[in-house]
């Protein structure tokens, strides 16, 4: 707490202790389990996902090769390569395409993961440069792609576009954007870290969605509850080249069986559940709006109002530290966890958080959401007073 009484945040150890002790969770978090608990769960789930009597992998064979095969099959791709990080997978994909197209310009959104969360590695490591598709906080349109003033070799599309609110175009809009890129003689790469949960919004299966692009990157921990890791999928010749660059980038690890096992278990456990998470996210979003109105919050935003996936943003007119303190106190007192970390918004006094609706939230009714959120806001008002 500062000298003027403003709460600056909650100590990490205290926050994790409150999260670990929570018996009910609205917004899912990957940090609820301690190491021993995570290892125990991995051992139990992995036994159903892979034959544990087989030997650990060595430089990408065994369980890693099985994961690659399964991902390629799920996405309808010729081949797939496992990468230790999504950032590495993205950079390798863009580098390979630049060599094949002869163009070092990549069309991308200025709020994409490539720009916001990878330290502009595409420029620093591969000498590529960005051409921004639009300055609007939404996915680009086909007209914007067609009207870009300079040529580009690759169009990189993040599905969903996380930073502006996990936003997706319609299926028709996405097809039109891809076609616009083809008209510009460009290839299309999907940053599909969260591609798994997009099919409900588009109304198509994974092979049809992934088949729109020339290459697709997917994550194993953002939606599937894995430990780490990603895959790049596409034509066999591209994946063979990508594997060579993976080695050069330091991604040819001696053993990766824990991450690979967790990914296979996540595909078995979470992939079939994602449609139910996406559907329930709409219920939770409506209930949150009702809770904020009932509490008399002067201004708030649930964005998008109807979530496109099982994740969305919440904006409130309170400092982030105050909201975190109120939420942790509520969890400590009641064993109910509502929101994860809050971040300060560009406007002073405003904060936002990302809500992830997972298995832990499926049992929450709208009344449960309204009651819990109302109680957190009561504590926030008390702290502010």
Automatic annotation (TrEMBL):
Which terms are listed as keywords in the entry? Pyridoxal phosphate
Q: Which residues form a coiled coil?
A: none
KW Lipid metabolism (keyword) present:
no
Q: Which cofactor does it need?
A: pyridoxal 5'-phosphate
Q: What is the lineage of its organism?
A: Bacteria, Bacillati, Actinomycetota, Actinomycetes, Kitasatosporales
What is a biological process (GO) this protein takes part in? L-threonine catabolic process
Q: Could you name the domain of life of the organism this protein comes from?
A: Bacteria
GO MF annotation terms: L-allo-threonine aldolase activity
Which PANTHER family does UniProt cross-reference here? L-THREONINE ALDOLASE (PTHR48097:SF9), L-THREONINE ALDOLASE-RELATED (PTHR48097)
Name-wise, this protein is: Threonine aldolase
């Amino acid at each position: 707490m500062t000298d003027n009484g403003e709460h600056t945040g909650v100590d990490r150890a205290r926050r994790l202790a409150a999260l670990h002790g929570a018996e009910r969770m609205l917004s899912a978090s990957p940090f609820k389990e301690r190491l021993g608990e995570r290892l125990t769960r991995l051992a139990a789930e992995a036994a159903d996902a892979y034959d544990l009597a087989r030997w650990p992998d060595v430089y990408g064979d065994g369980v890693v090769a099985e994961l690659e095969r399964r991902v390629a099959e799920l996405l309808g791709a010729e081949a797939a390569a496992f990468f230790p990080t999504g950032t590495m997978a993205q950079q390798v994909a863009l580098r390979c395409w630049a060599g094949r197209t002869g163009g070092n310009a990549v069309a991308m959104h200025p709020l994409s993961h490539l720009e916001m969360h990878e330290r502009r590695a595409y420029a620093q490591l591969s000498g590529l440069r960005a051409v921004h598709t639009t300055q609007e906080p939404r996915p680009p349109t086909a007209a914007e792609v067609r009207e870009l003033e300079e040529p580009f070799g690759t169009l990189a599309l993040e599905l969903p576009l996380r930073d502006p609110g996990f936003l997706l175009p319609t299926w028709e809009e996405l097809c039109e954007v891809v076609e616009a890129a083809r008209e510009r003689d460009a290839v299309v790469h999907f940053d599909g870290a969260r591609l798994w949960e997009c099919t409900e919004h588009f109304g198509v299966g994974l092979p049809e969605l992934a088949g729109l692009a020339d290459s697709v990157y997917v994550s194993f921990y953002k939606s599937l509850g894995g430990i780490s890791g990603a895959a790049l999928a596409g034509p066999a010749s591209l994946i063979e080249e990508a594997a060579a660059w993976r080695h050069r980038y330091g991604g040819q690890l001696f053993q990766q069986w824990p991450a690979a096992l967790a990914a296979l278990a996540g595909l078995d456990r979470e992939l079939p559940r994602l449609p139910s998470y996406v559907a329930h996210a709409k219920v939770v979003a409506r209930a949150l709006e009702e809770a904020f109105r009932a509490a008399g919050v002067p201004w708030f935003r649930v964005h998008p109002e109807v979530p496109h996936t099982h994740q969305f943003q919440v904006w409130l007119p309170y400092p982030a530290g105050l909201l975190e303190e109120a939420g942790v106190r509520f969890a400590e007192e009641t064993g109910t966890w509502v929101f994860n970390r809050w971040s300060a918004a560009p406007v002073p006094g405003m904060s936002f958080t990302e809500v992830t609706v997972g298995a832990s939230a499926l049992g929450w009714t709208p009344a449960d959401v309204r009651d819990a959120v109302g109680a957190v806001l009561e504590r926030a008002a008390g702290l502010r007073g």
